[in-house]
Design goal:
Rossmann fold; alpha/beta
C-alpha cells in the first residue's frame, strides 16, 4: 500500500479532503482500503464483485482513497449501493471513466427490486465481499441475498449492543452459507482521535426496529441466491 498517499489523504493540512469528508468518513475509508489491500482482493476471485454500501459521500471518500493505492481493475469491480447523495457518484469519474456500477438503495424502494437490481449490476458474477459503512438490519437482510457463499460482510458499528441488534437475527442463516460477518470499528478506533472514539454510534431507527419485529424464518426461503 502506498503510505504516502494514505498520509496525504489523512493529513489535517490537506484542506481539500478535510472540506469534503469528515474525519470519521476518512478513517472508515482507510480501514476498508487497508482490509482490501491486506487480503489482496485484487488478486483473489478475479471475476468477483465487491459491494460497497453507504451514503454517496462516504462511498466517494472510499473510492478516492482506493484509487490512490489499488489498481484500476479493483475499482471496476465495485458495485456502489447508495441510500442518499446518489448524485455524488453519478457525477463522478468513478462512474464515467472507471465504469463503477451504481445502484440506488433508498429505503422507500421495494426490497425485492433493490436486490434484483443489485444482482443485475453484478452481471452474474459472485459478490464475495460486502462493505457497509452505515449498517442496518434491513440492509444486512438485502446483503444476505446478494453475498456469495463463503463470502465476507464487513460492517462499521461503534456500539456493541447495536452491533448485536443488527446481526443477531441473521447470523445463523449467514453462517449456514459460510458467510463471515466482521465489525471493522475495532480497527477504526486505533486510527481515530480520542475525542472521536467516544462518540455514540447511531441508534436503531423506528423503521429498523419494526423491520426486526416483522422478520421470521419465512424471510429466508431455500432459493438460488
Amino acid at each position: 500500500m502506498t503510505s504516502v498517499a494514505i498520509e496525504s489523504f489523512l493529513d489535517p493540512s490537506n484542506s481539500s479532503s478535510q472540506e469534503a469528508y469528515s474525519r470519521s468518513q476518512q478513517t472508515n475509508a482507510l480501514v476498508a482500503v487497508k482490509w482490501i489491500n491486506y487480503h489482496q482482493i485484487e488478486d483473489n476471485h478475479d471475476d468477483s464483485k465487491i459491494l460497497v454500501c453507504g451514503s454517496g459521500s462516504q462511498i466517494k471518500c472510499f473510492l478516492e482513497l482506493l484509487e490512490s493505492v489499488c489498481e484500476q481493475r479493483t475499482i471496476k469491480r465495485l458495485i456502489c449501493a447508495a441510500d442518499c447523495e446518489l448524485v455524488m457518484l453519478t457525477d463522478s469519474k468513478f462512474w464515467t471513466d472507471y465504469g463503477c456500477r451504481i445502484v440506488s438503495w433508498r429505503k422507500e424502494e421495494y426490497e425485492d427490486d433493490i436486490v434484483r437490481r443489485t444482482r443485475l449490476a453484478a452481471k452474474q458474477k459472485p459478490v464475495f465481499t460486502v462493505i457497509d459503512f452505515e449498517p442496518t438490519l434491513r440492509r444486512l437482510h438485502r446483503q444476505f441475498y446478494i453475498v456469495a457463499e463463503c463470502g465476507r460482510v464487513l460492517l462499521y458499528q461503534k456500539r456493541q449492543a447495536r452491533w448485536k441488534e443488527i446481526c443477531a437475527p441473521l447470523l445463523p442463516a449467514l453462517a449456514d452459507r459460510g458467510v463471515v460477518v466482521e465489525n471493522l470499528e475495532d480497527d477504526c478506533r486505533y486510527l481515530m482521535p480520542a475525542e472521536d472514539r467516544d462518540c455514540a454510534g447511531s441508534e436503531a431507527s423506528s423503521d429498523d426496529l419494526a423491520y426486526s419485529s416483522s422478520m421470521s424464518s419465512s424471510d429466508f426461503p431455500e432459493c438460488d441466491r
